Amino acid sequence: xxxxxxxxxxxxxxxxxxxxxxxxxxxxxxxxxxxxxxxxxxxxxxxxxxxxxxxxxxxxxxxxxxxxxxxxxxxxxxxxxxxxxxxxxxxxxxxxxxxxxxxxxxxxxxxxxxxxxxxxxxxxxxxxxxxxxxxxxxxxxxxxxxxxxxxxxxxxxxxxxxxxxxxxxxxxxxxxxxxxxxxxxxxxxxxxxxxxxxxxxxxxxxxxxxxxxxxxxxxxxxxxxxxxxxxxxxxxxxxxxxxxxxxxxxxxxxxxxxxxxxxxxxxxxxxxxxxxxxxxxxxxxxxxxxxxxxxxxxxxxxxxxxxxxxxxxxxxxxxxxxxxxxxxxxxxxxxxxxxxxxxxxxxxxxxxxx
Amino acid sequence: xxxxxxxxxxxxxxxxxxxxxxxxxxxxxxxxxxxxxxxxxxxxxxxxxxxxxxxxxxxxxxxxxxxxxxxxxxxxxxxxxxxxxxxxxxxxxxxxxxxxxxxxxxxxxxxxxxxxxxxxxxxxxxxxxxxxxxxxxxxxxxxxxxxxxxxxxxxxxxxxxxxxxxxxxxxxxxxxxxxxxxxxxxxxxxxxxxxxxxxxxxxxxxxxxxxxxxxxxxxxxxxxxxxxxxxxxxxxxxxxxxxxxxxxxxxxxxxxxxxxxxxxxxxxxxxxxxxxxxxxxxxxxxxxxxxxxxxxxxxxxxxxxxxxxxxxxxxxxxxxxxxxxxxxxxxxxxxxxxxxxxxxxxxxxxxxxx
Amino acid sequence: xxxxxxxxxxxxxxxxxxxxxxxxxxxxxxxxxxxxxxxxxxxxxxxxxxxxxxxxxxxxxxxxxxxxxxxxxxxxxxxxxxxxxxxxxxxxxxxxxxxxxxxxxxxxxxxxxxxxxxxxxxxxxxxxxxxxxxxxxxxxxxxxxxxxxxxxxxxxxxxxxxxxxxxxxxxxxxxxxxxxxxxxxxxxxxxxxxxxxxxxxxxxxxxxxxxxxxxxxxxxxxxxxxxxxxxxxxxxxxxxxxxxxxxxxxxxxxxxxxxxxxxxxxxxxxxxxxxxxxxxxxxxxxxxxxxxxxxxxxxxxxxxxxxxxxxxxxxxxxxxxxxxxxxxxxxxxxxxxxxxxxxxxxxxxxxxxx
Amino acid sequence: xxxxxxxxxxxxxxxxxxxxxxxxxxxxxxxxxxxxxxxxxxxxxxxxxxxxxxxxxxxxxxxxxxxxxxxxxxxxxxxxxxxxxxxxxxxxxxxxxxxxxxxxxxxxxxxxxxxxxxxxxxxxxxxxxxxxxxxxxxxxxxxxxxxxxxxxxxxxxxxxxxxxxxxxxxxxxxxxxxxxxxxxxxxxxxxxxxxxxxxxxxxxxxxxxxxxxxxxxxxxxxxxxxxxxxxxxxxxxxxxxxxxxxxxxxxxxxxxxxxxxxxxxxxxxxxxxxxxxxxxxxxxxxxxxxxxxxxxxxxxxxxxxxxxxxxxxxxxxxxxxxxxxxxxxxxxxxxxxxxxxxxxxxxxxxxxxx
Lengths: 354, 354, 354, 354
What we know:
Radius of gyration of chain A: 21 Å
CATH class of chain A: Alpha Beta
Order of helices and strands of chain A: EEEHEEEEHHEEHEHEHHEEEEEEEH
Largest interface: A-B, 108 and 108 residues
Number of helices of chain A: 8
Oligomer: homotetramer
CATH topology of chain A: Chorismate synthase, AroC fold
Shape of chain A: globular
Helix content of chain A: 25-40%
């Protein structure tokens, strides 16, 4: 089921950039949860194009309509269907690229897979698909906050400019959704400069999940970091993920990378968190920390070499309203996929009475 | 099903370090495939402890016994059951750490999850569990080589020492399973030095999958890189993964990171492969390239701070035969998980006649 | 995923009787299939309340709106989202039974499961949920008819009155969707009489799937009859299912029940079909024949004993527009679940190149 | 995954009649359960050929070897691997039927599916495969009896001779595993007569699950009766299943079939159980009652018409040690599949805190 993720709490999505609507089904959601629609709306707004000054000038309402599974403001325990109407379907925008493979996009691979392709805005590969994830994530966060679990992400690097001396006081403010840091201005400038250059820029997002009880995840294929990786890597534009000391751990000795333990205030504590909150695939109770590499948006107005779908060399300049960086918009999507994954593992663990 | 991975071609495993045997079930394997037992044995041997001079001096036979699904040397299309007997179960080795949480190991998290723990060699979290993966991977490779798809991995960094100027001529030789490169001696020395120090060292493995047809993977949750990430991140000790330009892409402009296309020799071609062979979650036909961060082995003889399972401060020095680096042994496991994932996607794609 | 069925071709549904809309996601549907909307509409119409004179006088439009996965009338290979708006949500009809458990309905069990209950028309347990199945089934039939596979069902028994001497010339006509037979009038009268009595009546549906290639299904848990049984038994009101000689085979000798084979016209042929087209869980190429027991509609206006949801004895007479028999409406639902199951198995089998 | 069944508690099996061993993996089994090996052995013995005077004279030890997931007699929460060695593999017995399709067996369909066939005893379609199910079922029963849930089955009809006036005092005694009843002798005679005739005979098994809490199952595709049906219908030789009044309900009025409710001793109670303990797919707390139609064993020594695998007419008389009825041996298998299904639903329901 390629459009479904999760074991007990599962999200199934549908929808293309330029179809009538996107939507999906959130199944396995517990009964009796008060559905905070204001919170859902605020989460949707964070992802919405045009929500920050760094994004496109498109304005999509992204209004979620819940169609089932909620009665009198409370979840009923049954499948929650939802749709997000596509108010502005302007297919004409895309006619110029109908037969060109946009570099860095799925276009060529898509044709190879399906034998045909919805050229309008990337079809199913559109970033617009992530709106459904953010809805699912908002619902998962409603579950998690009952357990005092929080999921937050922020941009910590843009085009090689790393956040300097940042603390962690989420939620992080627009336009960049980055923690306050010494390089924040430069990071924002980097995106603005890319836009002026008709180009785009990548960066790194950090996500921290705090308050997770020890014991989530499984020792083999359902390791918590394995399922988180699948969930996060399934976001378009993500090219890498690491946990805790991550790629840096590859340069460390075991004596430095292992996190020592002590009894602190009568409870077990780790003296460091190189593990990023996960050991052997199971949560340790420490903050789960991951960093995610996001590539520069492939849609750029600079001219690039490509081919046509009937096999001729061509050049392309992708016109239209494109983000010079998807970093700010990716932040709530990363949170959403992380929240869905943690909530699912939490339900599974509950089945075993722990 | 936390011990199962795959959609049509699925691997289910069982087994602890010190139980009677490990094993599993490979299901959904096509009928009519000649099972090359010599090849399987050679793959198992690559992972086996003691197979390289850099590993432990333990010698485990790791002889796989196929119990079903193969008749007269040919797969029958039904579930392939297999076991690997644990010839040397020496539980006594582990009594000294029975009540201590080894830093960097799953011990503490494991207790939190299950309420009890097989302290003998890590139980289900033991690296020994990967023997079953290598068997599954060898079987998957038999399928892939019929399509001229190859899966190879090699160590490209040890303790911060990066392979210098390496080519890609797999299979790579023992002891390090690294491509020939200017720093090969230094990389090996780094591991030997860690051993002499009673310490361990991490590193980076590169994996390349060549010959994959364009069109594998799916645009949403079953992106090829998402499922590969889950499969690879489920290997113990892996703390990060990246595809193509990966974390480096976060520092690039779109104009540099996008891979231009041209018609070359009458066929579509990418002029670079920053995408690592996957765009929008679907294979492009280029080499799939990923790099995997492996942490230093947590078991070290140097003394470390920890606690006991009844809540007292303690110190621990992990005795016994431990690898100063799991890098060489992880190489065939990475290949195995990659091969299983690709073969599974290939079968799914075939269902759609492509 | 309790709202999802299928392996490669999967249907996920949502929706309550009195919510805003029902709908779902059909995933894994092959690309390039012309979507015959007239056919889909005709299938939906067959299930629709009020479509036959034997049903309720409610008129629901049951107009399906496809939201994704179809472009220019052709499937794109991506998830097909759809909704069916609930035009007439009259919750007031149900206030009188809000705190009463209707005998024969899920009400009591539902409260035990979820701790709360959508009392309006049965919530998720409403027969209205089957509209989504019929849509999925219509789509599956579009796949099957390319292979000349047909799926047809008809009512062969009503309240103990068995169809007499019927042939099999589907599709069967309204109002009963039964094959032409000597007892057809009496069968219809039986339903009319039940209505006049403020009562309801059950019956038996036969379903035949013709043109299925030999080889679908699997020898163990995914036996074709096992997955068909799950699919059919998941229809509300179904209390039994049998294949081929079914319960009658329990009274037979092996020498009579085994179907002999001969070479006829140069091809293998079975001389009888007691197996109902399935042996060892795998299709034989003969017609797949199953019979399904449907209980009398539980909603009756006759007074019945029950209890209130706060634990007091009570009596209930279910008012409103209820079918005296769901048999005619169940016919297209049975076909739909059968078609989805066969199409799914067909895709899986294709993955193995057969 | 055609060799896997279950959501949280899953059983994956492997093994052919004449391979080296059968076995499997029971995953998702809770930690801390004392594994009563005597009980497991007694369950295995009930299914074993030769365990009753009505079966074959073959004696298979069916000794289960647990390879993982159990330490010091207690489950560890990790995957439980097990094997059952095939002590007596006498392939020579089957050479005479190597190229003949046995009527009533999967042989022909199997060839169509896989393109090849393990002719030795039916390969994966062998009844021997059910030994793994009985092991899984025994483990599931250990879980269920902690909740005072019992699962029992008995033969209530043989060759048309119905048990007369039986009570329900399980476990039922060998040789028939039938409840004490007025026709018990005649039922046994019927099997003996079939054997003398070189023929076989079918029958009906009733299974009752007592003590199940209300609330298991789900309103749509995971209806409790739907998943039970899949589990039971996946047993070789089963051709029909019904719940509660089942096929008889098709002949009833709603006023007779609906089960009235009253408050009895201060608790909700149903005054009858035509529903068979399940309404709308969810358990009601009443006994779950199902009846299963088992066809006559297809292997008979009487001569039958068939064809060869190269397309020639032939006659066949299946020699060897075959049960004239699989009814007694099917009893523990029915219980096993029911127990696995209920235990799985119970774990899922626990995830939701009920």
